[in-house]
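User: Hey, my collaborator sent me this sequence without any context and asked if I could get a structure. I don't really work with proteins. Can you help?
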Amino acid sequence: MKKYLLFISLAVLVVAAAFTFREAITISGKVIDNTGSPVMGASILIKGSQKATTSNANGEFTITVPSKKTLLVVTSVGFDSKEVKVGDNLK
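Assistant: No problem. I've predicted the 3D structure and written it out in structure-token form, which is a compact way to encode the shape of the chain:
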């Protein structure tokens, strides 16, 4: 049975900057498994693009997204993938 990959956003809205009529947002988050343990090396991809990052040993990551409507796809070996809308997780 596959474990479920959970995505919990931490300090999500870190920096907001305007780029010619578009607002880029730098977000930070943490990837954990169903027991709350960090998932190291998880891929966090902006859906529909090639821009991605990976989680560190603590499951933490930072990525700049084009808007609050951005969908992130979180994947890791041995886990189900999960799509997360940035705007749903802003704090």
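In plain terms: Confidence is low (pLDDT under 50) at residues 7-21. You can pass these tokens on to your collaborator as they are.
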